[in-house]
Design a protein that fits this description.
This protein is mainly α. The protein is 79% helix and 0% strand. The chain is globular and about 65 Å long.
């Protein structure tokens, strides 16, 4: 059994290496956002190793930069990272029913979009040591990238760090554009979200609300309306 677990762990490291390299680049630009929010290298590294979520961390850094409250931060993290609860439930179906709780807890902490996708493609049941292998290489890459991004951001000229900071927005565009091109509903929701965000930032009645709370309100309202008007059928989701 130990040899089998060791083999799965090595395979996880191998398959997780491309993920780690991607995380290193993305987390570098995330580190610049953390630096702009006032975090030092170790604070940013701790945030990355405990959160392990690009969109969640970026939103969290924006909330910190805006001086929002802990309540706003907590609600923001709950809304943005809610998808990981669904991924955890899905991935738990591939685990041995007799697997101890601490294994499930550790895997649940390390779930990301990319590792979930790779783990979901494993046929039959999922050996937890395979996932640990991916975590062992990917999470350090994510953490080191954030640390280096903050450290280098403190050295480079302002105009250079501003240019590098655009990379994070490029990452979001890379996530949004492909599904938007395939689905008009998603494309429409993206456009509506952008217009609504701009309007809330300018309208007198709501512009005084903190940027973090505005994002929470828009996320809940637009996602709720979309779920009611454009529900995804179960067979369509499975496809």
């Amino acid at each position: 059994m130990k040899q089998e677990n060791a083999a799965w762990f090595r395979k996880g490291i191998t398959n997780g290496t491309p993920i780690a390299l991607g995380y290193l680049a993305v987390a570098f630009t995330l580190g610049i956002a953390a630096r702009d929010a006032g975090l030092d290298e170790w604070q940013g590294a701790v945030a990355s190793v405990t959160t392990v979520a690009s969109a969640g961390e970026f939103a969290g850094f924006q909330v910190i930069a805006a001086g929002a409250s802990y309540v706003e931060m907590a609600v923001m993290m709950l809304v943005i990272n809610a998808r990981y609860m669904l991924m955890s439930c899905s991935l738990s179906q591939k685990l041995d029913p007799d697997l101890p709780f601490f294994h499930r807890l550790l895997i649940g902490w390390g779930i990301t979009d990319e590792m979930f996708g790779v783990a979901s493609s494993v046929p039959d049941s999922l050996n937890p040591w395979y996932y640990y292998g991916m975590m062992a290489i990917s999470i350090p890459g994510w953490t080191i990238g954030t640390f280096v991004g903050i450290a280098v951001g403190n050295i480079l000229p302002v105009h250079v760090t501003n240019a590098l900071g655009v990379g994070l927005y490029g990452m979001f565009l890379a996530i949004i554009i492909p599904p938007a091109r395939k689905n008009r509903v998603i494309a429409g929701l993206v456009a509506v979200s952008m217009l609504a965000s701009f309007a809330m930032a300018k309208l007198p009645l709501v512009s005084g609300i903190s940027s973090g709370m505005r994002t929470i309100i828009l996320t809940v309202v637009i996602a709720g309306i979309a779920a009611v008007l454009f529900p995804v059928k179960e067979e369509q989701h499975a496809a």
